[in-house]
Design brief:
Length: 261
């Protein structure tokens, strides 16, 4: 039986990497981005769609802004219209600060933007999808509905010039934990992936900084992570390799989190 993954932020970076990894294993994808342009198949959501089709699967492109809660029912409805089901939700869409501010100077606008997309958006989209999954239980026992939160190593590592980002990611950790507890009785598994330093548009502007930090030993595995590294972890969860480990949190960060003396 084919599985369907609803992935926010599938137009680029980690979300695209997860979409392609899952599609390579036979998943259909409902991919969400804020501004998909059907004329552009070189980059963006329609490029991901073309790659998914090369893999023999279907990607349904969905325009949506996760920070706009009014979009959530339509996002789910478009996924169900296209495929008749949703088996996996990946809360991946996220932003860093438009401009880095010290915690003593950051603004309510910056705080609200980052929290609205990264945390509020993921929290309420999960609520919408979870309610659908609870109300429409799958008869196929081989499929465990799965929700994945893409948080960050910033859920635990504090950066005072990105306070709202760190708070949003730590909030995702608690959101994942709460949904894990609430949804267990419905046979829905919830997981959290904490990516480390991953090459994407988000980290483009800090390439040199992280090149140096990696060279100087920031990570045990001395290389940048890739969106596919995160995709493989997501696939392990969606394929049931962690079936008896709902609530699992995994860092995909080249050993970043191991404390050393
Ligand atoms: P990215 O390359 O900047 O891509 C961000 C994705 O999120 C894009 O597909 C973007 O779609 C989408 N998005 C942004 N705002 C949205 C909104 N309001 N509604 C719907 N979609 C929206 O970033 P990335 O590096 O792949 O990051 C993906 C996730 O991983 C984020 O949650 C990020 O915090 C997390 N993460 C990244 C790293 C890293 O090192 N890169 C590390 C840890 C965690 P559009 O095309 O519409 O802009």
């Amino acid at each position: 039986m084919k599985k369907v993954a609803l992935i926010t932020g599938a137009s680029r970076g980690i979300g695209r990497g997860i979409a392609l990894t899952l599609a390579a294993q036979g998943y259909d994808i409902a991919g969400v981005a804020t501004n998909p342009d059907s004329q552009n198949t070189e980059s963006g959501l329609y490029e991901t769609q073309a790659r998914v089709e090369e893999l023999g699967q279907t990607l349904c492109p969905i325009q949506g802004d996760v920070s706009n809660l009014d979009d959530h029912p339509r996002i789910l409805a478009e996924c169900l219209d296209a495929f008749g089901q949703v088996d996996v939700l990946v809360n991946n869409a996220g932003v860093s600060l438009a401009k880095r501010y010290d915690i003593l100077e950051t603004t309510p606008e910056s705080y609200d933007r980052v929290m609205g997309i990264n945390l509020r958006g993921a929290f309420f989209l999960t609520q919408t999808v979870a309610n659908h999954l609870v109300e429409n239980p799958r008869s196929d026992a081989a499929i465990t509905p799965t929700i994945i939160f893409i948080s960050s190593i910033s859920a635990t590592a504090a950066s005072v010039n990105r306070a709202e980002y760190c708070i949003s990611k730590m909030g995702m950790t608690m959101a994942a934990r709460l949904y894990t507890i609430r949804l267990a009785e419905h046979g829905i598994n919830v997981y959290e992936i904490q990516p480390g330093v991953i090459r994407s548009d988000m980290t483009k502007g800090v390439t040199e900084k992280y090149d140096h930090l990696i060279e100087d030993g920031l990570l045990l595995q001395k290389r940048w992570g890739t969106p596919e590294d995160v995709g493989k972890a997501a696939l392990a969860f969606t394929e049931g390799y962690f079936d008896y480990a709902t609530g699992a949190v995994i860092e995909v960060g080249g050993g970043f989190g191991i404390r050393r003396l």
